[in-house]
Amino acid sequence: MERSRKLDHDGLAVIHAAKKRRQRSTAKKKASLRKKGSKLKPTRRNKASTKKHKHPRHRKPQALLPLYHEGPLQKAYAAGYKEGVYQGGEAIVERLVPSGKILPGVTAEALIQSGLMQHQAEMLEITDSVQVADEIRSALDERRSFSLVRLGDGELLTLAYGTIIASSEAHELGAFLPYAGVPLPDASVQSLLMDSIQKADYVGVPMSRRPEFQMLLFAISKHYGWNLTQNRLTNSLINYQLHHHGLLLSILAEQRVLLIGNKAAETADRMRKQGVNVVGSISPVRGFEDIERVLEQCRMYEFDICLIAAGVPAVVLCQRIASGDKKVAIDIGHLADQMIQESQQ
């Protein structure tokens, strides 16, 4: 019994000493213990360090796991993805193949490809950035009007509000519309917007066929009786393409430039540093109700080309400025924000 107690006492002493040594260990020792799966409790953080970390270590948000990961969540995601691909492709083919028949060796993708060939005559041309830039230069050289407007989610939701999409759903999807200058779309705003789109020289349209982009665009076209063939079309991201390909600065060279939008002054500073002759800036633009005031202010400047970043009202401003004063007007949208960010880097 005494020997057993002595062994217990000695064993506890050894364990206690080992714990002391581990507590005094360096970062290298801690790393070694982690590799061995040590269950030692991590040292507590003081209050100051706790405030800096919003989540405990074990709750840090993790990146999406790759499809081959064996975790249950990723397995569920992979299964859902696989089912979605089937329902959106082969299930449709399965439903359309005549009863009592099968179609071996032909995938849904191959059927779509062959089907597209039959509709080539109905496809509309999307003008690339180089050609658009050439046409802008021609308009500037000839001193004629030219308007380039773009349709993004803001413009499409404004036109769909209460017409194609129920007001409640559109309000939920378009929670950002007040920021884009459209507090509550109504028939007068929609009519003004559609009229400017139809009269514009170029209309940028989305290339994605997602429900909220091209599918919504086509529904809007049908609802308002707007034949897409009556306008020349380009990519709705034409503003970024002109900038990234170095075409915008070459267009603005030796031209008098007017900027319009809530960040027009900051954008003007950026452009002046690049040698652009910015003759003035107009801001802010407080939605559709501010359009007439902005147009009146435009008449105070002598300019050749106007760049506008004013949300949805930019469509109307572009078309009205171009047609009324025989100027070139381009909707640059969030490119203005990007240019400001670039100047701060």
From TrEMBL:
InterPro entries: GT-D-like, GT-D-like_firm. Coiled coil: none annotated. Residues 129-339 form the GT-D fold-like domain. Residues 1-11 have a biased composition (Basic and acidic residues). The lineage of its organism: Bacteria, Bacillati, Bacillota, Bacilli, Bacillales. Residues 17-61 have a biased composition (Basic residues). Residues 1-61 are annotated as: Disordered. It comes from Paenibacillus shunpengii. This is GT-D fold domain-containing glycosyltransferase.
